[in-house]
């Protein structure tokens, strides 16, 4: 296996690895649920992904002299111009990306994919691109869903996809400080395994974990399911190295500093527009002695949200605070395997008890709280949380559903391909807002999506969970789906835009942790103000006057 | 009293309010301590601050047309050109500032001081300055010690000091979210009183608290004595408004967001170079049910540092982690009032016990840990901390010294004027570095200062405490003093430079929370790398192409 072959990529047409797909044979409630939710009959014959041979891939502009110049830097075997590699590096994995691939929409693909071995080679590639006027798009795991990876459709210059996959080592652990220096191309499971081998964990588990990289997390301001405890990537990333045409930005790992506007925070979220992130020094932690995810039921989503805030403010400081609205709670129960989680007998008994308590089971909200630390501390946390749950009318239901959640949390993206095979589109949008705004935001986002579905005369679905809690507010994470009609792209855009606009109009941000790319950039001025965008534009234009560094992303 | 007269300023020649000064009549051990430490005999006749009449204040360049144009915006009474007001607005309160004022060194002072009433007036002043090509220097409490406020000595243009003192209201508290919208000119005690009246606290208590403003804290990336719990100002400030020549940057309060390079983190620490911060939405907290500061002794500073790390990593999560080296511990004991804190009888008994335990009392390190929350949680925290203290060979000594520390923490800056009256200079320098680097950094900073003193043939003093703990490292805060000779400025520069260079050479940052100004800017390239400075320079130049916004600060 060559170095390049050792770099793992997802399917060119969908999420995840070949041979793995969502199925519902063991989830008896799933098909009826989908029929009711979006009117899709899963018993009907499904379509299938396209054949690669059916795609019309534009010819590469990386002619022999370009390839030769690149090969002189990274070696001939590390310069790839074949169609499948170029297509794999064209998009991320947003629903629009998946739909475009299936429809063979490829207005512009990278002309060459290069696989540098180290920072020196990256520096040489960047310098070469600057000299020649080629466009550079850094590529990590390719899991982005905001359009941060795609070439501009009308780009006349040579476009190079810089695949970071060979830079995947944990280089060094400063055990005394809890700091690990890691190459930017390391994917989640790989870097976590390297850390685990030495007794450490990063504690960063975004839903994309299995197919995303450290450099990608930093470039998009990622957040993970245990970020309540471990912090978002912006907290975790203490030191950085980023290659620019004139040299390398080196930010040494520091716990905190007052050295002017934060260059660290300029690089975090920069999506390749300031340079190529090659190395990140991150906070790492000793694996906790005990870890458990407890499930709770609340009578309503509103009660659950208020409980999450109280828990976040309490002395418990859990690792996960999560609560789903009634629809998502119903969805979770529908996607359970017949034999797992709370058995249906127990569930039925429990539901009877709740009805006797006066709960409307249509409103039930499922919550997960994570606990970590010494056993005595986990016990202390659970006592505090139990009291708050009771005060908000909730009920503990044990670790069964939580264990299930833990196991399947990274499988959800596979469902999108399953649904696309059957003519339905599913996507996610997330935001963050102050606690006082969440209920209004939630109500208006649901109404906006319903309005969009109604205007199409279509039955659509939208569900939500609170995924991260902060002192000042929380992240609300929406999932939506509908059966597509004659113009899937326009229909998708209608629903997606309605949701994004409702975020902004209700004091939320356009994205809590999925970044901006091209998907969210139309809302940037509304989010951070015209003058805020002007400051950012000044930074990009001064840092990249010839627009060779992933141009067109974040702001136009 | 006019609006302008209601704005409080510190003494033009020194720290704090008129009539308040450091004295040692009730601190019997202070004079012997100072004699031993720096060879200064406090029984000798002291000098005194200069008379204002002795200063040669350069004439204002704000002639009648300038004043008239400004008056048209803010009103005639709010445009001040008298010499004392201009001198008050020339410097902050660094030791170099105090020395320059005493020596009558005033190469350039602001030509006019204006006191806008609100953001609209600020916007009009900024637009006017942009049109006319005047330089604008925003002024909060004037407590800065990094040279962030001083005009460039060779500035030929009209310089306006924009005093924020009339913008001091807590405008709104979002009680459901724990967010308060506060005008940038509000000083510490004023805003804290407004919050306390409604049951809230900001929890931000820098040493400058009594004379610094919210806008100043944000503009300099401030940190306070309880930041371990409440966060640094960069964590606390969630929403911002900043006036620029073309309009206002409006960042709505958000718990977190992934909208590209953080404009919020560009404004934090910008020291006036990007615009005028007018309003900040900050995280506020309910006042804790219980709050106490416990004191501990450790056999050595090294043991104390290791204990602080273990406490920071533990589940206790205290509000303060602080430990002083042996010298500073000795200084603290020497500045005690005869009748306060641990009485000398108790101290003597305790010291005997420690000696019997085998402690070298010359190495003793005094530590303070802060606890906050429900009484049961404070008890829980204290149990965890007590165990860690024991594991590191330390000993609890109760709340007496902690209460004393709490009372006198804001009085320390007065000592500098007291010493200047007697021919000695005292200053502070602080840094942050990973845990693994702290001991080496400490040793080398002490050696660097001693080396500087030795090269002058002078007896000098340097002491240190750890003031803030993070997962990845901590802040070390150094205080140094020496009797000045023929060329106090060169002597000071020698010592200060040796310390700063040792920070950088030992993996520390040039400042943890005092910002950059002109004092620290020579080390910026060494701290954040040449390419890091290039990114920052691009931001400043694109945001302020005519260099009217506090030019020359942070980077040249």
Summarize it:
Chain A has 556 residues and is of the alpha+beta class. Chain A has 20 helices and 18 strands.
Describe, in plain words, how this protein is organized in 3D.
The structure is a homodimer of 556-residue chains. Chain A is an alpha+beta fold and 556 residues long. Chain A has four domains: 55-163, Uridine Diphospho-n-acetylenolpyruvylglucosamine Reductase, domain 2; 170-286, Uridine Diphospho-n-acetylenolpyruvylglucosamine Reductase, domain 3 (2-Layer Sandwich), CATH 3.30.465; 290-408, Vanillyl-alcohol Oxidase, Chain A, domain 3; 414-519, GMP Synthetase, Chain A, domain 3. Helix content of chain A is 37%, strand content 20%. Chain A is built from 20 helices and 18 strands. In chain A, the strands form four sheets. A seven-stranded antiparallel beta sheet of chain A has the order 15-12-14-13-17-18-16, sandwiched between helices. A five-stranded antiparallel beta sheet of chain A has the order 5-6-10-8-9. A four-stranded mixed beta sheet of chain A has the order 1-2-4-3. In chain A, helix 2 (64-74) packs antiparallel against helix 5 (119-132). The first copy, chain A, is globular, with a radius of gyration of 23 Å. The first copy, chain A, starts with 29 loop residues before the first helix and ends in a 13-residue tail after the last helix. The mean pLDDT of chain A is 95. The interface between A and B is large, with 91 and 91 residues.
């Amino acid at each position: 296996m060559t170095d390049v072959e050792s770099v793992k990529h997802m399917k060119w047409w969908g999420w995840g690895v070949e041979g793995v797909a969502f199925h519902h044979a063991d989830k008896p409630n799933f098909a009826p649920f989908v029929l009711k939710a979006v009117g899709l009959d899963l018993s009907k014959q499904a379509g299938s992904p396209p054949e690669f041979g059916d795609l019309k891939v534009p010819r590469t502009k990386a002619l022999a002299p370009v390839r030769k110049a690149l090969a002189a830097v990274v070696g001939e075997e590390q310069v790839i111009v074949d169609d499948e590699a170029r297509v794999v590096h064209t998009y991320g994995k947003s629903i629009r990306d998946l739909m475009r691939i299936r429809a063979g929409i490829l207005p512009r693909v990278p002309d060459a994919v290069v696989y540098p071995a180290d920072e020196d080679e990256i520096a040489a590639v960047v310098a070469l691109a600057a000299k020649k006027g080629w466009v550079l798009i850094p590529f990590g795991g390719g899991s982005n869903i905001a359009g941060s990876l795609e070439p501009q459709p009308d780009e006349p210059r040579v476009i190079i996809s810089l695949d970071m996959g060979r830079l995947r080592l944990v280089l060094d652990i400063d055990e005394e400080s809890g700091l690990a220096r890691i190459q930017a191309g390391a994917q989640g499971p790989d870097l976590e395994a390297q850390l685990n081998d030495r007794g450490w964990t990063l504690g960063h588990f975004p839903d994309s974990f299995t197919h995303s990289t450290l450099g990608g997390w930093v470039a998009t301001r990622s957040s993970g399911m245990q970020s309540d405890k471990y912090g978002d990537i912006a907290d975790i990333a203490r030191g950085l190295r980023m290659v620019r045409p004139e040299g390398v930005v080196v930010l040494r790992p520091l716990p905190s500093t007052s050295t002017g506007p934060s260059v660290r925070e300029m690089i975090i979220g920069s999506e390749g527009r300031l340079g190529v992130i090659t190395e990140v020094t991150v906070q790492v932690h000793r694996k906790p002695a005990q870890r458990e995810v407890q499930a709770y039921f609340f009578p309503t989503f509103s009660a659950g949200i208020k409980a999450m805030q109280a828990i976040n403010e309490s002395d418990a400081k859990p690792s996960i605070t999560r609560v789903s609205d009634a629809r998502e709670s119903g969805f979770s129960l529908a996607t359970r395997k017949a034999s797992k989680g709370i058995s249906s007998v127990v569930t039925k008994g429990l539901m009877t008890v709740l009805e006797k308590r006066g709960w409307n089971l249509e409103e039930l909200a499922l919550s997960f709280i994570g606990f970590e630390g010494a056993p005595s501390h986990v016990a202390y946390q659970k006592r505090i949380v139990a009291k708050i749950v009771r005060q908000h009318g909730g009920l503990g239901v044990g670790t069964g559903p939580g264990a299930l959640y833990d196991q399947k949390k990274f499988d959800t993206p596979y469902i999108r391909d399953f649904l696309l095979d059957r003519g339905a589109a599913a996507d996610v949008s997330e935001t963050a807002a102050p606690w006082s705004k969440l209920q209004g935001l939630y109500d208006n986002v649901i109404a906006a999506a319903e309005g969009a579905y109604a205007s199409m005369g279509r039955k659509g679905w939208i569900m939500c969970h609170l995924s991260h809690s902060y002192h000042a507010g929380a992240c609300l994470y929406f999932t939506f789906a509908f059966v597509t009609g004659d113009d899937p792209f326009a229909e998708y855009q209608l629903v997606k835009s309605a949701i994004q606009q409702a975020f902004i109009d209700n004091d939320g941000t356009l994205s809590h942790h999925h970044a901006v790319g091209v998907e969210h950039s139309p809302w940037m001025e509304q989010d951070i103000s015209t003058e805020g965008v002007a400051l950012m534009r000044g930074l990009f234009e001064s840092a990249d006057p010839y627009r060779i560094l992933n141009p067109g992303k974040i702001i136009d």
